[in-house]
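Q: Sequence in, structure out?
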Amino acid sequence: MSIQLVTTVASLRAESARLLSAKQGTSQALVPTMGALHEGHATLARTAVENNDVVVASIFVNPLQFGDAVDLDRYPRTLDADLALLEEQGVDLAFAPSVEEVYPGGEPLVRITSGRLGEKWEGASRPGHFDGALTVVAKLLHYGMPAAGLPAGSAGTSGGNLPAYRAYFGQKDAQQLALVRRMAADLNFPVEIVGVPTVRADDGLALSSRNRFLSDDERDAALVLSRALRLLEERANAHEPLDLDSALAMVESQPLVELDYFDVVDPGTLEPLAENCRETPFRGEALALIAAKVGPVRLIDNVPLSS
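A: Exactly. Output:
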């Protein structure tokens, strides 16, 4: 079946309800994206398709999470290619609304706040970014909720139960994933938030829609980010001290890379774990985060650590 494109909330709800009924489905998934899709997004979509009866992928470049109007205008829009990629993965519906559809009264007067979790790392470097991201994710989660499209009084499509509802996010945006999970838990969203591991190119660079803006030399330089993360991962797996300082020196030795932050944090709170970083053997669970500007492009990456 070919993918169906919808552009309004009403049509999304109507078509997802129709598909759930037609398939006698018991689960629905949402894959939120900003378009300019690549294999990382394809992995998200495939994972959702493998585990759900109806899958919706949203394509929306959210102006609230861009602090720079130039960066917003520069963000690539590739709708036709995006639809083709999603169709190849078996996605049922693509929801590509206009800004006016999502924000009919202009920028919202009330927004989701990312709180303390959103003030550090990416939040410190991009003030307001996570407030804008969580606001649109909250709206998308409401739009894609299977119960919203069911007839009044309907109890669902199977056994009197509402369909299961899941939303899929990439681990590459680790702070965003942590914030979405916290928002869903703290505000009682009836959705399971599923994290999908980072997808990398053969050379180790984490896939990103922004990689296309790197020159050949800049791309080669950017590989130091994944190499430094891999060094920490290897040390964690060997129960050795992480020696973050030497990994930091590796990154700072690359002249084309302007480092923003590089640290090892608690996966839930995102607070630094200094005691596990340098002298004592690594134990437990952690997340290594890195962000840097390479040429005109800001890149982020991370790797989960465990022992």
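The radius of gyration is 20 Å.
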